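step=encode ok
step=design start
structure_in=
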């Protein structure tokens, strides 16, 4: 079943649509303060259409244009969210990255930029993100179990 264009999307739907792993979307949330999905019960993420456009623009900057995370952050800061969203929709083009956008002075934690070059602090951050995702899932399971074990629910069902 296809969702309406204005409907919210789950993290798995966005990940599938953009061909990006879910953990990368969570990682980008830590690197780009502008990416703020709505979080509901149990920490579940729901992305608005404008969130998806922004992430699509970030993905395009990083994967297609060759920007580093710092370079993409600079594009966001200098040109704004709406510009990067329009890049994601294919309505605007971004200039090729300058050497400044390619040089970070250090390896970034994003494995797509520098595979295997992440520092221990970066790996801890990735581990923390993975653990937070597991915790979010556990909270969602707990909420579902509480709903099922609520005595008022049993009276309604019988």
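sequence_out=
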């Amino acid at each position: 079943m296809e969702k309406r264009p204005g409907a919210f999307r789950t993290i798995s739907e966005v990940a599938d649509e953009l061909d990006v792993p879910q953990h990368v979307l969570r990682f980008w949330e830590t690197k780009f303060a502008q990416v703020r999905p709505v979080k509901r019960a149990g920490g579940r993420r729901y992305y608005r259409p404008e969130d998806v456009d922004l992430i699509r623009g970030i993905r395009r900057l990083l994967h297609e244009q060759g920007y580093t995370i710092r370079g993409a952050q600079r594009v966001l800061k200098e040109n704004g969210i709406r510009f990067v969203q329009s890049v994601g929709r294919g309505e605007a083009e971004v200039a090729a990255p300058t050497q400044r956008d390619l040089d970070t002075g250090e390896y970034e934690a994003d494995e797509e930029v520098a595979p295997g070059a992440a520092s221990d602090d970066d790996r801890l951050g990735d581990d923390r993100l993975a653990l937070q995702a597991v915790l979010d899932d556990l909270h969602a399971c707990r909420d579902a179990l509480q709903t099922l074990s609520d005595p008022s629910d049993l009276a309604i069902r019988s």
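step=design ok
step=annotate ok -> The chain is about 60% helix and 5% strand.
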